[in-house]
Every structure is written in structure tokens, then in C-alpha cells.
Amino acid sequence: SSEDEAPEEVTFGAAREAAEAERKLEGEAAQRHRELLKEKRRRRQELFIEQKRRKLLPEAVLQELSAAPPAGYQPQPLLCSSTAQCVCCSVTTLQGFTSLYLTRPKGNYTALRLKDQSVTALHQQLAKDFINTQLYGPDSNRAQANEFFSLANKKDPVKKAAVQFVDKSWG
Fold first, then answer.
1. 123-159 pLDDT, tens digit each
2. Of 131, 127, 130, 170, nearest to 148 (Cα)?
3. Number of domains in the chain
């Protein structure tokens, strides 16, 4: 029967040539795949650049903006903690300040002045303090859970109860 027959005998040279041919075909296929990926990446990059070009302002508008300084611009001195660390003491000493204000940032960023940011944080803190005093002030009969409950007591090397009574005589 055909199942009992020994496998076909192949010489070493023929087997080596077949393996080399198979390895060569696999290498060529991998090379074609890499080139295809490179081409796709290049096309995607070109499309992205073209989309960016369409989004940009027309060249005439850009030229007009770069020629004129920003409207209502008044130089303000920078705030420095010490004069030794301050390299430049005013915005006007920076060369090419118009390009600083007219270049588009990469990504979706919003510019905020630190003064505005601190005012916002101050308002938030004042609101939290107001709510805290209204809810847990001296005239209210409320107390925050943190006054009674402490996970630190559970995590200390000397374990204690997490809940503690304000009046020590209670237990």
C-alpha cells in the first residue's frame, strides 16, 4: 500500500536549493510588504499636509498680519522673582516678537494668562470655603466624616479603630 512506502528520497543539494528558493521568495514578499507600507505612510503624510494647507489662511492675509504689529499691543514688563535670574526685563527686548504672537501652536492648545488662571482658582477656593463654612460652621449641628473616620488608624503599625468618638468617654 502507499501508506507503507518510505518518503521520497531527496538529495541534500536539492533540499538546500528548495529551502533557499523558499527563503528568497519569503524575503521578497516581506520586502514588497514593507515597500507597500512605506508607500501608504507617504500617501497619508501627503494627504495630511494637503489638508493642513487647505486649513491655513491665504498667503496674502498671512503677509498682512506679519507686516503689522498686533492691534492694541502694549509692552508690559515681565514679572521676575529676582533680577539676577531675569535675562530680559520686557517683552519688547525680544527680537521678532510679532512671530511669537502670530505663529500657530502645534496641537489644540489654549493660551491663558497666569493672572486669569489664578483668579479662577481663587474663585473656586472661595466657593469651596463658603460651602464648607455654611455646611459645617460653628452654628450647624453637622460634622464632616473625616473627624470621626480615619483610614490612617487602620494602616498604622499599631492598629486602632477607624471610627473614633469625639467624646472620649463614649468608648
1. 899 999 998 888 888 888 787 776 667 777 778 888 8
2. 170
3. 3
